[in-house]
Design goal:
By secondary structure, the chain is α/β, with parallel strands linked by helices. The protein contains six helices and 19 strands.
């Protein structure tokens, strides 16, 4: 059940935050809809004649909010629409972005937006299995629609604590038997071990949801080398980078800028790069958004991000969180 949120009489613009990605424009909020208990969808349209940037299923975008806050949200409408749609769950324990969008944002305001990025893009596969947990359904909505339009073999399983907390149930219901719902308050439970065991070889899995769900899924998929797992995370994956106090300094070479400097034991690569006056797009600062992905030319990297695949980590890193363990790191910057 959805309901439009009334429009107050005053239409204001959100004060511009500092665009850390270097590619910000503006969009107007044209519709805010309450999709379920604590989720609203926000419709954005261009300001002026220029269209919003194009995007592909699986993309997310930065919103630049007041006090220099930058938050990432998945685009969950249709890529061929003139407007964008994104959805936000109110998180009382969060950093304030969701509260602002729920409590302060009104229709008619303008928002600073970044250029869409996609680290969750569809790859060729014989079949697809989509797994959504709660608000993690958002990037999977356009993916499911794209797979249906392509005539691909696919399924989507959607889990949530309560049926009332699961947005877009009606929309997904239009896909018929391809979508299954599991609401804990209805006594419905998805057995991940059985789910993974039933997948055909060469299936591509696309999953988005809370960390516990994704970690349990990765554990199950670890026994199936014939499956390809793709995950989208809203928070960093649980990692054990060791004792941060034991991080050692290393030399940093920026090949394009001709800069040679050092990264201190208590300093990030990003901080060292910015100290030298070299700009790197940033947003989340925790290795989840992919804004600061940079090419590695030489050096052994200790990866601490939650966005790059194993293949991508062979020659890329996120400068906001990762480090070097070989004493010298050369980046294409």
């Amino acid at each position: 059940m959805t309901s439009a949120i009334p429009v107050p009489a005053d239409h204001r613009s959100v004060p511009d935050a500092r665009p850390t990605t270097g590619a910000a424009s503006h969009a107007r909020v044209t519709r805010i809809v309450r999709e379920c208990d604590d989720v609203v969808s926000i419709q954005l349209e261009p300001v002026g004649d220029d269209p919003l940037p194009s995007w592909t299923p699986g993309s997310h975008v930065d919103l630049f909010l007041p006090q220099a806050a930058v938050r990432q949200y998945s685009l969950c409408g249709r890529p061929d629409d003139r407007s964008w749609r994104l959805a936000v769950r109110r998180d009382p324990g969060g950093r304030g972005g969701s509260r602002y969008l729920h409590e302060t944002l009104i229709e008619g305001m303008t928002l600073q937006i970044g250029t869409p990025r996609n680290h969750f893009a569809l790859v060729p596969a014989t079949s697809y299995a989509l797994l959504a947990g709660g608000i993690g359904v958002t990037p999977l909505l356009p993916i499911a629609a794209a797979l249906r339009e392509r005539g691909a073999t696919w399924r989507l399983d959607y889990v949530g604590r309560t049926a009332a907390s699961m947005p877009f149930r009606d929309e997904l219901g239009r896909h018929g038997d391809a979508v299954n719902f599991y609401a804990s308050d209805h006594g419905e439970r998805l057995d991940l071990a059985v789910w993974v065991a039933g997948l055909a070889p060469s299936t591509a899995i696309y999953a988005c949801g809370p960390p516990a769900l994704l970690e349990a899924l990765a554990e199950q998929v670890g026994t199936r080398t014939d499956l390809a797992l793709h995950t989208e995370r809203f928070r960093p994956a649980a990692t054990d980078p060791g004792d941060a106090a034991a991080d050692t300094a290393f030399e940093l070479v920026l090949s394009e800028s001709g800069v040679v400097t050092s990264v201190g034991s208590g300093e990030t690569i990003l901080e060292a790069v910015e100290r030298e006056g070299v700009f790197v797009p940033t947003a989340c600062l925790e290795g989840t958004c992919g804004s600061c992905v940079t090419d590695v030319i030489d050096g052994v990297v200790e990866h601490r991000d939650s966005v790059l695949t194993a293949d991508e980590q062979t020659n890329q890193l996120c400068v906001c969180v990762s480090r070097c363990t070989s004493g010298r790191l050369t980046l294409r910057l």
